[in-house]
Design goal:
Elements (H helix, E strand, L loop, with lengths): L2 H33 L1 H9 L4 E7 L4 H10 L11 E6 L10 H10 L20 H7 L3 E9 L3 H4 L11 H8 L6 E5 L2 H4 L7 H7 L2 E4 L2 H6 L4 E5 L15 H13 L6 E7 L1 H7 L3 H25 L2 E6 L3 E2 L3 E6 L4 E5 L5 E2 L3 E6 L8 E4 L1 H11 L4
Parallel strand pairs: 1-7, 1-8, 2-14, 3-4, 3-7, 4-6, 5-6
Antiparallel strand pairs: 2-13, 8-13, 9-12, 10-11
Helix pairs in contact: 3-13, 4-14, 11-13, 12-13
Bound molecules: magnesium ion and zinc ion.
The site of zinc ion has 6 residues, from helix 12.
Length: about 375
């Protein structure tokens, strides 16, 4: 379909929606009158000041079920009461990759696999992070992969090749992102083109932070956290609570902005465990992600102005649970694939605006729901 056709359809749909609204106006005012104060209360809290989008890369329902069993029915994700499902197909493939699905969530557009925040023709698309920046909000990205890897990159970089890490690193300097923490130092410092982006970051008043100890000492300002040359290690191989502590530090910095903030936090290696068909690795990473979810939900519970969305970009491994034991907290997991699968993924929401996330919808809707929650226009 041509862009003009798409726009025409979009335009006619908008007219239709306005028409529907006009028709039902009488009814809804009756509802407001009947419910009075209750209705006002709902309106008052349904626009969040902050949005935290948490992506468990490759985390499907089976991964969550297994983690729930292992944790004997007490998973932080389960604290969310509003739950939906997102359909993950990309523009050019039934089975998406993380570039296309990240782009769907960050821009509201379906694109080709391997692409980052560009349309199928390669044209740049504004991301929710960039739009939040333009509207005066603070922004952040935290991941347990290189910060230039597909999922975080789809929120800040524009490229038809998700593997173009050096160009992706350069795109971090084209925004005013306040906090980013992950691996990938080499793409900023040891580049083939000889540029030293660490100096450029420093010139823009970023604190360059290389480990959790240094991070703990920072309590304001902009943070470029590059803890590893490439990817952080597995949780079981010494990464520790990097995801949770980084997320909490980012929140501490970002919430200083009275205008609000947008942050994406990724449990990156749930996906890699799925590709490896490694159940133990899979559960370590899923539970590490859930620990971060717990810390974020604790903040959101107290803050009351933060919408938290917890989802996945796709499922990985075709993971299944073929047996288990609730008392012992054990599952018999099995994999049907070494790649991604086409199953819908769950979307959990918490806080003001969470009720918008129920139902079954395309992954692109996550972008539009965030835009609406912030009150941003397209
Ligand atoms: Mg990822
Ligand atoms: Zn993958």
């Amino acid at each position: 379909m041509t862009n003009i056709m798409k726009r025409l359809i979009h335009f006619s749909l908008s007219i239709f929606v306005v028409f529907l609204f006009a028709c039902t106006e009488g009814d809804s005012s009756t509802i407001v009158n009947k419910k009075g104060d209750d209705k006002q209360e709902v309106n008052k809290v349904s626009h969040p000041k902050n949005i935290i989008l948490m992506i468990g890369d490759g985390m499907g329902v089976s991964q969550i079920s297994a983690a729930l069993t292992i944790r004997r029915d007490s998973l932080n994700i389960a604290r969310c009461k509003y739950i939906g499902f997102s359909k993950t197909s990309s523009f050019d493939e039934f089975i998406t990759d993380s570039g296309a699905s990240g782009t769907a969530m960050s821009t509201g557009n379906k694109t080709n696999n391997q692409y980052l925040a560009v349309d199928p023709q390669g044209h740049s698309l504004p991301t929710i992070l960039e739009i939040a920046e333009e509207n005066g909000l603070s922004t952040g990205l935290v991941a347990t992969s290189s910060i230039t890897h597909a999922t975080p990159a789809s929120f800040i970089a524009h490229n038809v090749d998700r593997g173009d890490y050096e160009a992706i690193a350069l795109d971090f300097l084209k925004t005013d992102i306040d906090v980013f923490i992950g691996g990938g130092k080499n793409y900023f410092a040891a580049r083939k083109d000889g540029l030293n982006l660490l100096d450029s970051l420093k010139a823009r008043n970023y604190y360059l932070i290389y480990n959790s100890g240094e991070l703990a000492k920072i309590d304001s300002g902009k943070i470029a956290g590059l803890f590893y040359d490439d990817h952080p290690p597995k949780y079981s191989e010494g990464r520790g609570s990097m995801l949770k502590t980084s997320a909490l530090k980012a929140i501490e910095i970002l919430e200083m902005n009275d205008m609000g903030f947008f942050m994406m936090i990724e449990g990156s290696q749930i996906d890699w465990a799925g590709h490896d068909n490694d159940s133990e690795y899979l559960m370590d990473e899923t539970l590490d992600f859930d620990d971060a979810v717990g810390a974020v939900l604790d903040f959101a519970e107290k803050n009351m102005e933060t919408l938290v969305i917890i989802t996945a970009d796709h499922e990985t491994g075709g993971y299944a649970i073929n047996g288990g034991d609730l008392q012992e907290g054990k599952v018999e997991g099995a994999f049907t694939s070494g790649g991604h699968t086409g199953v819908m993924v769950p979307v959990f929401a918490f806080g003001p605006g969470a009720e918008e996330f129920i139902g079954i919808y395309e992954n692109t809707e996550i972008f539009f729901k965030c835009m609406k929650a912030f009150g941003f226009s397209q």
